[in-house]
Write a structure and sequence with these properties.
The protein is mainly α and 140 residues long. It is 78% helix and 6% strand. It folds into two domains: 83 residues; 51 residues. The chain has a two-stranded antiparallel sheet with strand order 1-2.
Length: 140
């Protein structure tokens, strides 16, 4: 459907050039001269026009393929989003939230490590004090 219109234009252009070439070949082997039509049309100039038309058709075909690919990608992305299967629209917000939560997790882990160290130090101090209390004293 997308290719029908541009291809139809290219085909009409090629048919027009081919018709001109056939007319030139039938009128004369090399040139048509007429005082009222302007400069002479030669077989070589018509062949050059035909070659240019072929090149233009190839460029248009490549451009059409590129446009079809972009349209297909856009429609696919839109369909993916509308189906609910794609990523949410506020993905940047979610990435920021993830970063914030990861940082919060690191902070909590650091606090836990500090408390573990404090607890270990308190246990060591408690063991030392209990050891002092349980040892017989000489001066009592």
């Amino acid at each position: 459907m997308l290719r029908a219109r541009p291809c139809r234009i290219v085909c009409l252009l090629l048919i027009s050039v081919l018709a001109s070439l056939a007319f030139a070949a039938s009128a004369s082997a090399f040139s048509i001269t007429d005082e009222h039509t302007g400069p002479a049309v030669t077989r070589a100039s018509l062949q050059a026009d035909l070659l240019a038309a072929h090149e233009r058709a190839a460029r248009l075909s490549a451009h059409i393929q590129q446009l079809e690919k972009r349209l297909s990608e856009a429609l696919g992305e839109q369909t993916w989003r509308e189906s609910g299967l794609g990523p949410p629209a506020d993905i940047d917000t979610l990435h920021q939230r993830i970063s914030h939560l990861e940082q919060h997790n690191l902070d909590l882990q650091q606090q836990l490590d500090e408390r573990d160290e404090d607890l270990a130090a308190a246990r060591a101090a408690n063991r030392e004090l209990m050891a002092r209390l349980n040892t017989p004293t000489r001066l009592r």
